[in-house]
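note to self: dont lose this again. the chain is below, predicted strucutre after it. 392 aa total, dont forget to put it in the shared folder this time
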Amino acid sequence: MTDNPLPAAKFGAHISHPARVQAAWPAAVEAELGLRFPGPGTWPEDAAAKADDLPRGRHRPSRLSAPGPDQRVAARRRRGRGEWLDSGPAQGAGCPPGAVKWLWRLLVAAIVVLAAFSAANPGPGDRRAAASGGGDPGGGDPAGAAGAAVRGVAARWVAGQVGRGAIVACDPAMCATLQSRGLASGNLVMLRQGAPDPLGSDVVVATAAVRNQFGSRLSGVYAPAVMASFGSGSARIQIRAVAPDGAAAYRSALGADLLARKAAGAQLLLNPRIGVSPVARRQLTSGEPDSRLLITLAAMATMRPVYIAAFGGSAHGAGVSMPLRSAIIRGIRGAGYVRQAVAFLRAQRAPYLAASVQATTLADGRPIIRIEFAAPSPLGLLGAGYVAAKRR
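---
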């Protein structure tokens, strides 16, 4: 790659958080990018031995295990009923056994009479429920069924696209749906009524309940960026990235990150070992790809030439400023190199460990590799200093 290397003083030489960069790059890549990564290096030959040492995500204490006030009250009531049935209040009061037996018989007879009366004379609420389809949520409450369907779609996206270590804030109904999709309770923050804010999480699932709870502060202060959106009207659900330092600071960081991605994309287009399709060229020029993809592709080019077919990963309803988190690489020759490249990609460490690496073969026999990183996209990996160096 000595024909036209990426200048060490330009590409990534000013990473803003060096302690977070733990990619297992070889020495050749470090020299190519002008970076020094702490920790042992990993190249495809020993990637299999390192695969078992990869981090599996952050451990967070469970935030759903503690029962709420309503649950504790209900539990006390259940325990109270059990104690009454076990101890027998009549015997405790000193009543003779015969009197206790007659009291029970009278109670059972009264319950039977009341049940028969209710069956013969349904109330207004019962008649409305019967006319609308009873308790079936699909036929009796179309709006409720539609809301449940949108929750399922949103939960499926979160389970498949959001990083396993990310903390997700949600209302009780949405949290239950997310848990049914496999998200651990320790990664969920339940936003009950009265919760002051969703801060402390990485992602907030903005259902109608959450929007009503936080109002304009949700988009104006806590979570300004929309990563995906599903449904419409009151059933609309948005997946938002939380801004820990506020919306203004987030937008400023996002703007700086876009400038750095544009500069890095322009530099990659000058590299003779990286070929691009017209679509990928436009995407690189406009700074659309995620910073993790740009750094990873530069590293792969040190192994062999790569051809980028396209970048993708934009979800339905995502904001225009959201980076593209996936790439399709083709034009690769040799099954051995495909195995090496896949092993290399899977051996990386956060933040450069891809959420998904898939190798497949097209109908014409050409192999391709698809790389996808998890949401939300980290900002500042290239650093503001990279833009200044590029301008010089």
